Sequence to fold (312 residues):
Amino acid sequence: MATVTVSPIHFEDYSGVQFERLVFAYHVRAGWRDLIWHGQSGGDQGRDVSGIELFDGQPARKTIIQCANRDTLTLAKAKGDMTKAVKAIGGTPDAFKFVSRGAVSDANRTRIEQAAASLGIPHVTIWSGVEFEENLRLRGEYLLHRFVRGIEFPDAEAEIRKFVDDFPDLSDADVLQLMAAVFDRPAFRTPFQQESSLPAFQQAIEDTIGALNTGVWRTREGDEIRRIPSIHHLQDQPTQAMLTKVVRQVDELRRIFVTRLKEGEIRHCGCGQPNCPTYMLTPRVADELDEARRKILTTFRSVCSSFNVRLQ
Fold:
């Protein structure tokens, strides 16, 4: 078998606007809501992009994203951007995110986090160029391919959104990579125990079935996270058949859960609190649900070798 070498991307070969355009496109692809590209019109006041990052089972975060198209992200640069941004929006955001083309030392990460805390910003994410590239390959490799091949991204926000959501010329491998994200959630990763937190587990499973069949991926609260390719985007018939099997296995997981809930082998803890998320499971059912999830992940991995979601 031939060895394939994946070369790192030299972001320094691209202009600041091109880099920002890719950062914006990535976050559209990653399902962020209400994204605004401030840097497009100049005078960004310490915020190139702003938007809302959605989480499954956690509060959404209003986040400011700053693109650092430079060799090193310094404390002075980061602190200056955060200070300007806080003043510009008239309040403190939930989070700040830096996407740098270069490396960021551990010492600088710590200092930037401390500076954020002093400004009242509770969450800071810092991506080096390597980390940005890793996330691009995970969630939007076709965007990276187009970027490196010199295919021009559109200038306007609306056109970039269309460019990202059209799934142009995707190979089956690209489709599977995007579909894999729906399994990277607690409903598939967290082993069951005799006492388990199960808020909206059934809804999460039903949302997964919907995402695979229709391409519309939602949080368990019903908010659309983003659009992904569906089974119908796959060209290879055996691969499509295998994904149809995955959907049947996910539906079987749902059926097991609903049946055992009715039979009493899954029951509320009995504390009397209506919003308590704790349920009691018999050991047999915990093993049964874990085995059903292993089958799902194994079947998906059989057509997507890079898939690395496993029960923890």
